[in-house]
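So, can you check?
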Amino acid sequence: MKQNPFKNVEEIHKDASRATTHRRMQDMGFSCCIPCVKPPLNNRQRQKHLAWAKDKKDWTAAERGTESTLLESVMVWGAMSSAGVGPLCFLRSKVNAAVYQDVLEHFMLPAADQLCGDADFIFQQDLAPAHSVKATSTWFKDHGIPVLNWPANSPDLNPIENLWGIVKRKMRYARLNNAEELKATIRATWALITPEQCHRLIDFMPRCIAVVIQAKGAPT
């Protein structure tokens, strides 16, 4: 264990049972846990991850923009800012550029009006194909909406990932029989998210960015 703390119990025990090995490890003060799954980053992506964090490390709360994401279990789009959450959109088909632009038109724009009012904002999205194609970039330009540059494979820099985590934890004991019940539960849980929770996640960003810089761009 001291030589390689990432070995699991199955790899360590030889002559004793797994249960006995586990107990002895606990007696010695070790505990077992499952390492967090981190997205793979090649050297180029890691440098962009680091560069993004360094570039944004001095951003104020007012400069941190609106976030959006897709929860893939039932394909749902949602947006947040430090002012709270916007309306949800459940999707029935694969998200291509046309579908995504329709979501932006009928859900993102109302969410921006609700959360930002007349204030300027920067929209954040990941690098999914539907998000980054030329047609979608043109849509943003035509609507005068600046989009935050984004490094690939960087969910650790996206506050809305933590928000979806909150939603999932609140739903973990729900007994759901079908997709419609799942959607209804997601809507109800999303409606309970407070502006204070969103504000705390946005306020956590400087600390998150500092960790990325400390890790020299490695996933955190």
